[in-house]
Amino acid sequence: MLASLKRNRAVLAIIAVLVVTAYFVFTSGSQGATATLTTASGEHAIEVEIADTDASRETGLMNRSSMPADHGMLFDFKQTRPVAMWMKNTIIPLDMLFLDERGKIVNIATNAKPYSLDVIPSAGPVRYVLELNGGAASRYGAKAGDRLRHPIIP
């Protein structure tokens, strides 16, 4: 009886570890919820993928030949600090919105050149970067001080 109870506990512990591991594997770097960018021209819904692990941030939008309009990738650096981006192996031009810990735009880099190894700095401490198709920031009327809302941004 005692051996059976111990075996059942061991099985339950293994199942719990597998469930927790699966949660992190299938949620990090995955499709995220809709983000809302609020600018002077209104509220703009953007479907975002989340890059919140070292691997997903390192890969980003590399090697993609296109991205649908009103889609993007939201990078979460987990802490507020200066960051730098680049376009290595990135085929499509991108706009990069650098955001503080509350989702406020600190600065914007527009139409980053595909394949460029030039460093694109955040111009100050940020926690998030939203990458959009080149020209999208202008189309949305995005400016420093505008705000992005998303479930991962407090």
Tell me about this structure.
It contains three helices and seven strands. By secondary structure, the protein is α+β, with helices and mostly antiparallel strands. The chain has a seven-stranded mixed beta sheet. The longest helix has 26 residues, at 2-27. Mean pLDDT is 87; it is low at 16-29.
Show the helix and strand layout.
Layout: H1 2-27, E1 31-39, E2 42-51, H2 54-59, E3 71-85, E4 94-99, E5 105-112, E6 120-133, H3 136-140, E7 147-149
Parallel strand pairs: 2-3
Antiparallel strand pairs: 1-2, 1-7, 3-6, 4-5, 4-6
Pfam family, one: DUF192
Organism: Aureimonas jatrophae
Protein name: DUF192 domain-containing protein
Give the termini distance in whole angstroms.
50 Å
CATH topology: Jelly Rolls
Oligomer: single chain
Q: Please state the structural category.
A: alpha+beta
Report the β-strand fraction as a percent range: 35-45%
Organism: Aureimonas jatrophae
InterPro entries: DUF192, Saro_0823-like_sf
Protein name: DUF192 domain-containing protein
Pfam families: DUF192 (PF02643)
Quick structural gist:
The protein is an alpha+beta fold. It has helices at residues 2-27, 54-59, 136-140; strands at 31-39, 42-51, 71-85, 94-99, 105-112, 120-133, 147-149.
Features:
alpha+beta; globular; Jelly Rolls; about 25% helix; Saro_0823-like_sf; about 150 residues; DUF192 domain-containing protein; about 40% strand; 3 helices
